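worker-03 picked up job from queue 'complexes'. Input manifest follows; two sequence lines, order preserved.
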Amino acid sequence: MNVNIPTKEEMFHALEERHGSDFQKKISKASGAVCGLGGLGSNIAISLARAGIGRLHIIDFDKVDISNLNRQQYFADQLGEFKTKALGDTLSRIAPYCEIVSHCVRLTEENIPELLKNDDVVCEAFDSAEQKAMLVNCILEKFPEKYLVSGSGMAGTGSANLIKTRRITDHFFICGDESSDVEEAGSLVSARVMVCAAHEALMAIKIITETI
Amino acid sequence: MLYNVLSGNCCGSSIFVIGGVSVVKVNGEMMDAAGKNIAVLLTEMNCVSGRVAVELNEEIVPKSTYGETILKDGDSVEVVRFVGGG
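worker-03 finished. Artifact:
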């Protein structure tokens, strides 16, 4: 492995050249949380790290399983590792100066207020509908000032063009086709999950660079 | 007497409903739902309450208050239904 990684200044300058100065200054000061590090969350986190986010808060309780490799950003040699550790390692290689804060824990109504209090933008990236609803309701009730981006509906092989970002309120956006349930569709395919993850990541980036 | 604008502009002229019909906008569609509470609305929409988030006039409705939150004429409701997969 090449250990001669660029300096922090060199990395910032390269990103600034590509994204613009205002964009880069804003995103380098922002903190984003990614809740759930599966097909949505692992891809969202990588997009935010590549964009140059200053602090990335990654949360998941699970370990990398062989069934994850079809769509989640893990490697075959990471099976059995906690997702926070495995993804944290990858993120550090992509963005060595991004502050990565990881919590290997299951988010609940009880621990969300404490764990997510410091994040500007929260990306919901769970897989179960009940967990998605729990996190969204909890954030909207406890932190109405935070920005929340959620993903719902990316199963199966329906057209990628059905996946959209929809504004619910000034602070709450939902990405996905809002209808394809994994139980009914029977599959989760990387290409379509990544489209939804990209919607969530881009919305988070737009909030950080154009709104906050 | 009530004058409710139902669907804004249609062919250059507005449609008004005069009288007793009270309408609530639910996910962008006008419904005769005033007077109902959120729990009843969700049941009528075949929604599982554990899989939704409900916004009333751009503010979250806490789950614990679904049964006591009564919809009024002119309210705007957004019911976000979550599906599995991620």
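worker-03 released lock.
The beta strands of chain A are 31-35, 55-59, 99-103, 121-124, 147-151, 164-169, 172-176.
Residues 105 and 111 of chain A are 9 Å apart (CA to CA).
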